[in-house]
Automatic annotation (TrEMBL):
This is Derlin. It is a multi-pass membrane protein. It is found in: Endoplasmic reticulum membrane. GO terms for biological process: response to stress. One of its GO terms (cellular component) is endoplasmic reticulum membrane. The chain crosses the membrane at residues 17-39, 59-79, 99-121, 141-162. It comes from the Eukaryota. InterPro entries: DER1 (IPR007599), Rhomboid-like_sf (IPR035952). Belongs to the derlin family. Residues 219-247 are annotated as: Disordered.
C-alpha cells in the first residue's frame, strides 16, 4: 500500500482530484449507490427542471459495464498521462492557469455536448486536454497501441478514428473542437495576429491557487516553431512524449 500511496501523491494535485473523482463516482454508480439516470447530461432536465448539478456529475461519472469497462480504463489512463504532463510540465508552478483551462474546457464541453447529445463528459474533456498538450508538443514522437509511432500533433485524430472504428461513435471529436478553441484563443490568435490572449485566468483563482514560479501570471510560451520571430529569452521544456498502453 505504501507504493500505491507514493504513486498517488506523485500525481499533481488538480489532476489527482479529477482522476479520483472520476474513479470513485463511476465505481459507486457501478455498484448501485445511485442511479445513472441522475448523473448524465440532459438539456430538458437541466433547463426546465433545474437539474443544475448534471454538468458536474457528467464530468466525473461514466457508466461502467462489461462493454464499456476497457474504454473507461483507457480514458482514465489518458487522463492520468496527459493531465499529469500538462499540469506538471506545461503549467509548471501555475495551478490557477491549469485549473482555468479545465474550467474553460468543461464549460465548452458542456455546451457542445448539450448541442449534439453527448451524455457524459469524460471523453471530450480528456481529449480536450490531450489536444492542447499535443499542439504544444507538435513534433514529439508518441507511441500508440501495437507500437505505432507518429508525431503528437496527429494523436487526437488517431483517437477519433480509433473510437469510430471500435465503438462507432465520434465523441472524441467534441474534445478536439473544444481543445482547438482554447488553443486558438490562448495561443494561436496572439501569435498569428499579434494581439493579446482572448481569454485570461480570473484573479480570484490566483488568490486560491498562487503561482510558485516567477512574478508574472501567464500561460507560458508556445513552442518555438509557433513564434512569429526568434527571440533570445530562452526556450521551454515541454516534457517528454507519452507512450500509450505502457506504464
Amino acid at each position: 500500500m505504501s507504493d500505491f500511496g507514493d504513486w498517488y501523491r506523485s500525481v499533481p494535485e488538480i489532476t489527482r482530484y479529477w482522476l479520483t473523482g472520476s474513479v470513485v463516482a463511476s465505481l459507486l454508480g457501478r455498484i448501485g449507490m445511485f442511479s445513472p439516470y441522475t448523473m448524465h447530461l440532459d438539456w430538458q432536465l437541466f433547463a426546465t427542471k433545474f437539474h443544475i448539478w448534471r454538468p458536474l456529475t457528467a464530468l466525473f461519472y461514466y457508466p461502467v459495464n462489461p462493454s464499456s469497462g476497457f474504454h473507461w480504463l483507457f480514458m482514465l489512463y489518458l487522463l492520468y498521462s496527459y493531465g499529469k504532463s500538462t499540469e506538471k510540465d506545461v503549467f509548471t508552478g501555475r495551478p490557477a492557469d491549469y485549473l482555468f483551462m479545465l474550467i474553460f474546457n468543461w464549460i465548452s464541453c458542456t455546451i457542445v455536448s448539450f448541442a449534439v447529445g453527448i451524455p457524459f463528459l469524460l471523453e471530450p474533456m480528456v481529449v480536450s486536454v490531450l489536444y492542447v498538450w499535443c499542439q504544444l508538443n507538435k513534433d514529439m514522437i508518441v507511441s500508440f497501441l501495437f507500437g505505432a509511432q507518429f508525431k503528437a500533433v496527429y494523436l487526437p485524430w488517431v483517437l477519433v478514428l480509433f473510437n469510430m472504428i471500435l465503438r462507432g461513435t465520434m465523441v472524441e471529436l467534441a474534445g478536439v473542437v473544444v481543445g482547438h478553441i482554447y488553443y486558438f484563443l490562448m495561443y494561436s490568435y496572439p501569435q498569428e495576429f499579434g494581439g493579446a490572449s482572448l481569454i485570461k485566468t480570473p484573479q480570484f483563482l490566483y488568490q486560491w491557487f498562487p503561482s510558485s514560479v516567477g512574478g508574472v501570471h501567464g500561460f507560458g510560451s508556445a513552442p518555438e516553431s509557433r513564434r512569429p520571430a526568434p527571440r533570445n529569452d530562452g526556450g521551454h521544456n515541454w516534457g517528454r512524449g507519452q507512450q500509450l498502453g505502457s506504464s
